[in-house]
Specification:
By secondary structure, the protein is of the alpha/beta class. The protein has five helices and six strands. The chain has helices spanning 2-23, 41-50, 63-76, 90-104, 186-207, and strands at residues 27-31, 54-58, 83-88, 109-115, 127-134, 159-164. Strand 3 (83-88), helix 4 (90-104) and strand 4 form a beta-alpha-beta unit. Helix 3 (63-76) packs across helix 4. The protein is globular, with a radius of gyration of 19 Å.
Length: 247
């Protein structure tokens, strides 16, 4: 009887530990465009989950509802990493608004990935690193709903990269798509995932000595998205090897 109870306790402890590890996956907030537009965001969510993240897709206009939860989790350590936000189209502008709200609560944001920012909302000072990927389209850039434009950082301490796929040779493949389709393709999802994995790895390396063990995103099975594009090769150059620039 004693042995049975001991085994039961061990099993419960193991289950509790497994549940905690799962809860402590690094959260990634995915912010949809206008009216919740982001075709393929569910596939991106599944891909990120398979690689150790805890993605949460939200509608841009509802971002304020998520601020208290994000702030509380960060303060209490109920997360596997720092705040990470990805925004597409007008969702990129809402991403900056979310960062601003978190700044008012004293919460830093480690990584922001913007795709096709429509209004070019400035990146708040609490953001450590931001990459804004867009395609300049002179014929339609005067129409916010059809464009992607560069952004500016409020603070010079923010490492900001504005990457125009028309002028960045490593991103020219993005010009095969348009404003409404670029975020739905698997190649784009792999690019985002690889960048987030790189940033999470950097965070773990920088904070391992000062914090308890953090769950690193586990790379599950690798996949190839197309024969012409080796998708497991990161589309964005390593952050550590790139000189921060604001265009």
């Amino acid at each position: 009887m004693v042995r049975t109870v001991a085994l039961l306790i061990c099993a419960l402890v193991a289950l509790s530990s497994a549940g905690t590890a799962q809860e402590l996956r690094p959260e990634v907030i995915l912010i949809r465009g206008g009216a919740g537009y982001w075709p393929g965001v569910s596939r991106l969510s599944r891909d990120l989950a398979e690689h150790g993240f805890a993605p949460r897709a939200i509608v841009g206009a509802s971002y304020a509802l998520h601020v208290p939860r994000i702030a509380e989790n960060q303060r209490n350590g109920n997360t596997g990493g720092p705040v990470t936000i990805v925004g597409y189209s007008s969702g990129a502008d809402y991403a900056c608004a979310l960062c601003s709200s978190l700044q008012k609560r004293g919460i830093p944001v480690a990584t922001v990935v913007l795709m096709e920012s429509t209004l070019g909302t400035p990146v708040p000072a609490n953001v450590e690193f931001c990459v804004n990927i867009y395609e300049s389209r002179p014929s339609t850039d005067w129409i916010p709903a059809f464009r992607g434009i560069p952004v500016e950082a409020v603070s010079p301490q923010t490492q900001l990269m504005n990457l125009d796929s028309n002028s960045e040779s490593e991103l020219n493949w993005l010009t095969d798509y348009n404003h409404f389709t670029v975020a739905s393709h698997t190649d784009t999802h792999v690019m985002i995932r690889n960048l987030l994995l790189q940033r999470q790895k950097q965070f773990i390396q920088e904070h391992t000595a000062a914090t308890s063990v953090l769950p690193a995103p586990a790379t599950v099975s690798s996949r190839t998205t197309s024969q012409s594009r080796p998708s497991e090769t990161p589309r964005v150059r390593p952050v550590s090897n790139v000189t921060p620039r604001v265009r």
